[in-house]
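Quick start: load a record and inspect it. Here is 5-deoxy-glucuronate isomerase:
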Amino acid sequence: MTYIPHGTAASGPWDVEITPEAASWTYAGLRVVDLADRPVELSTGEEEMLVLPLAGACDLVADGLRLSLTGRPSVFSGPTDFAYLPIDARVTITGRGRIALPAARATRRFPIRYGPADAVPVEIRGAGQATRQVNNFCSPEAFDCDKLVAVEVITPGGNWSSYPPHKHDTPSEHEAVLEEIYYFEGGPGYQRVYGTHETLAEVSAGDVVLVPHGYHGPSMAAPGYDLYYLNVLAGPADKRSMAFSDDPRHAWIRDSWADQPVDPRLGGVS
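Running the structure step on this input writes:
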């Protein structure tokens, strides 16, 4: 695991710039920018990307096509609309607020598309103090593209997510090989990664954790502080998948949820 504190992955206009080269892997990337008065211009090159407002709104022109994203007040305000950018696209983004661009090295070119907020599948996962909300805006089942997978997770204060701990680094019919980025807002919280080595990092807004291999989880939200993370995943398989293997020592936890109520702070989401 690599823990990247807020501010240490800044480059040019980007508050966070994680490329495959910077991460010392092959596929997954992420950029985060605080938009102000000046536009941000970029070429997607070999990466397909999403434009995802974290807080605020933006307009973009991609290869001459204009799109407006309504955005949201914060990551804790529910899903947002977003845009998909293919490889080899020229893009200009204007607006105000914090904008994330999850990315993956890709080979197939898909059309530029708009993703409405009301079409984002929202899932309540777990139960009890393992209850969390997953916004599956770019999961394999929800949105079609080449390599990129991205979801958002909201963990209420005092709860655990990314739990039971799991991994996706061994190819099999039950597990996909994926590089994974965690980008955090809110907090403080804690992120554990283990298997090849043990790491436990305190995380808060703007921090990043890279997971090239090994078990990861839990993500723990400190009592009184909700925790958000954006997961960006990509790997070598032709078919996108989020398949994983639980740590067998902790897999029994899933069965325990059947007898626990869902945390009422998230129970109203359908």
